[in-house]
Amino acid sequence: MSGAFTMLTATAAALLTIAVAAVRTPGVARVFLLTQVVYWSLSYLARPIVLVWVQPEPGFGDNVADPRLAGIGYDHGIETVMAPVVVGLWVYAALAVAYALWVRHRGKSRSPDLAPAAALVPTLAAVFVLGMIGRFAALATGSAGSAGDVDSSNPVLSGVATLAAVGAIGLIVYYRSADRMRTIAVIGGLLLVQLQWTVAVESKSPIMGAALALAVRFALDGWTRRRVLGVVGLSIVAVGGFGWLQSIKLSEGAVAATVAADAQYPAVIQPFMSILRRFDLLAAATDAYYMGGRPWLSTGEVLQYTLQSLVPAQLLGVEKFHSGTAWADEVRGSSVDMTRVSVSLAEGNINEGYVLGGYAGVVMAVTSTFGLLLFACWALRARQVVFVALGLTVIGAPVLFERGVLGSAEVLGKSLQIAVAIWIVDMTVREFRQRSVGRSALAIRPRFDAPTGTGTGGLR
């Protein structure tokens, strides 16, 4: 029995344990945990299985066949780089099981509020409209950006455009109508908008966030057989169409290179190669192994950068630390020539923790991720719109799946700014609604014609 097989078996067992714990956990936490299982299965299970099975030769246009792993042998390479991943997944599985047992010991939790405030849905609608205006402006000015971009060419438009994602996710989760067909039309339209934006920016995050929001909605309403089948069907369609979406904006040369790279893989897995390319946390685990224990950031630097991430750059006065860019330049750059590549990478919580603090760092990192998951579950049923907004941004950003402590802090820093903007919109919507109610009350108030109290509509 090879070492790679042992590691992959341990990985599968840990992911299965998390899935079982998720099934026994009620509410939104179940959705988040199961999504993590799917995400990490593609990154840490499906991709290494393909590498060990096929033993592909690295070549142009193929980022699945890692030349570093091929150089030391895929069997030995997978066995080595997956060791911290196995530890991290089993620690996370222990946390998930402990939480499931705690929830069951407390008894069935109360059903979360579907609409934390009366003005929430109008606020989210206004936020969505503002965000769509920002998206159209970004497309018109050529500053929409794409996946992996280091900096936005127009941070203001980028921030406004982000409101569209939060608004769409929020409406998918909270919009309710007595007319069932209207509800289906609204949610279907929002899913289509997010799908189109996924194609426009060449990023999987918009449509993944929308799909996760739909699952969260079902978790709030209660699962039925029809809803389960709907989510499974949507997932199958997404998997089948993922390669097509990725190829829409590729040049003919890039498509030809991709087809040539896929030719060395068995025909049965070729339709799924585009998915394996996008779920690339195994590459980050390989980055961590090739650091060879060399220091990256000190504990003081981690704390400093984490706190700075929560402060707006305009108030901070200095350029913020970007963990994805630093990972590409300094961590992956230690074993791969990145001198001509400028990109922001997903480091993953386990891999970042291992580079920063070894196995103790892995435990800290996965515990932080689990704490963020619990916070998002609480925020989505809070009464204050600021906390609801933070919970929605966690759905829209892949912090629970592919970012570490530093990356999560960066996303939360941006989320705080978005939450403040949504709070301002919420106050405006509330004021408008109050004035509308006031005008309606004046319109129907009885009008008296005489001091005696007699008149049109008056009491006699």
Please tell me about this protein's structure:
The chain has 20 helices and no strands. The protein is an all-alpha fold and 460 residues long. The protein has one domain. The protein is globular.
Furnish the topology, listing elements before pairings.
Blueprint: H1 3-23, H2 28-54, H3 67-72, H4 74-81, H5 83-106, H6 120-141, H7 155-174, H8 180-201, H9 205-221, H10 225-247, H11 252-262, H12 273-278, H13 281-290, H14 299-309, H15 313-316, H16 323-331, H17 349-379, H18 385-396, H19 399-402, H20 405-444
Helix pairs in contact: 1-2, 1-4, 1-5, 2-9, 5-17, 6-7, 6-20, 7-8, 7-9, 7-18, 8-9, 13-17, 14-20, 17-18, 18-20
Question: What is the structure about, briefly put?
Answer:
With 460 residues, the protein is mostly helical. Helices cover 71% and strands 0% of the residues. Helix 14 packs parallel to helix 20.
